[in-house]
Amino acid sequence: MVPSPVPGGSAATSAVPLSEDRILACLAGYFPQTHPSLLLGRGDDCAVLKAEKPLCVSSDLFLEDIHFRRNYFTPEDTGYKALAVNVSDLAGCGARPLAFTLCLGLPAWVDMDWLNRFFSGMAELAGKHRIALAGGDLSRSTSLHISITVWGEAAEPGSFLARGGSMPGDILFLVGPLGLARAGLALLEEQGREALHHWPAACAAHLRPVPQVDAGLMLSRAGYNARPPALMDLSDGILRDLPRLLGLSGELSATCPEKCTGLGAEIVLPRGRLHPEVLHYAAATGKNPVYEALLGGEDYALLGSCAPDMLPPLHAAIPGLFSIGVVTSGGGIVCNNEPLEKLGGGFDHFDAGQDA
Question: Is position 160 annotated in a ligand binding site?
Fold first, then answer.
């Protein structure tokens, strides 16, 4: 059952009615009109990006009571995560973030206090990665709708990385937490923001995930003079995302030709690799922590594969990178000698039981 949302720390109505001009003036206080990535910024029919080489682009929706709830997301958390999930897509392509557009559908309860806090959380992450706000749109809505599109450029030297290209014998690796956001979501759903006092890392992993941008850029550079790693961001859990990386889900016809057919994986994931809060949460709820890590979505870690001789320099260059197994030619995926099929299909946005 979906809990009844409450406004995140702001009054239900604004003392002064909102207007498009007021909202845009508020936004301009957090995001400057000019930026090194822009030839023409906000205020015209289109923005113009400085682009001397190919750009990559990605979009995500961030919807109230689907991706977040206001009873435990503050406005700052909402703004931060709405942008973070998009920046993580750029990291999964080994790209450097440049700019984004923001489209907002705002319900009647939104006031200027909420907007200031929302923009401040978003600007915190944008400032860290020097991302320009290039434009967007505003509208009234019956619930809070956030849509963001991001652009990025390839590392120098380097090129964009893709999911396809794994080969038998390649090493599978991760950069970032595994299963932590799943635990945080369950705890926040049960306890609200009280969970932050006892489970700070798990709650932070769900409320404010850290896009692995620097690691993505390092992986892109590492593939410049060698066979590039296969890479993606881990947003739906290993159970669903690893088949995508290996080209087993039917989505990689362009980047994963016939040589991908029949690929599989053998994963070794000891409990000691998992964050202590994942282990504590599993012990407290009688769950298998490895299963929780495999099922968990929204970690926004990086999942990839590389040639075996590339792994030592990647270990040395990228903090937090660790190997989890090997790509096989036999088909099927096993973890700790158990087939993953027994755990089901993993996270699915269209499964009503898996809404945030």
Answer: no
Task: With residue 63 as reference, give the H or E element that holds it.
Answer: strand 55-63
Please report which confidence band the pLDDT of residue 250 belongs to, taking 50, 70 and 90 as the band edges. Answer: low
The C-alpha atoms of residue 57 and residue 322 are separated, in whole angstroms, by 28
**Alpha carbon distance 305, 323 (integer Å):** 9
> What does the DSSP assignment read for 29-41?
TTS-S--TTEEE-
Q: How far is CA 26 from CA 81, 120, 122, 355, in A?
A: 19, 10, 13, 31
- pLDDT tens for 97-119 read 999 999 999 999 999 999 999 99
DSSP count for the chain of H helices, then E strands: 11, 13
Is 208 assigned a ligand-binding role in the annotation?
Answer: no
pLDDT digits over 32-87, tens only? 999 999 999 998 899 999 888 899 999 999 999 999 999 999 999 999 999 999 99
Residue 233 known to bind ligand: yes
Binding residue per annotation — 21? no
- d(CA 73, CA 56) in angstroms, rounded, equals 30
Q: Is 76 annotated as a binding residue?
A: no
Rounded-to-10 torsion of CA 239, 182, 335, 226: 70
Residue 113 labeled ligand binder: no
Nearest to 258 by CA among 165, 161, 331: 165
How far is 184 from 181, CA to CA, in rounded Å?
5
Does 58 count as an annotated binding residue? yes
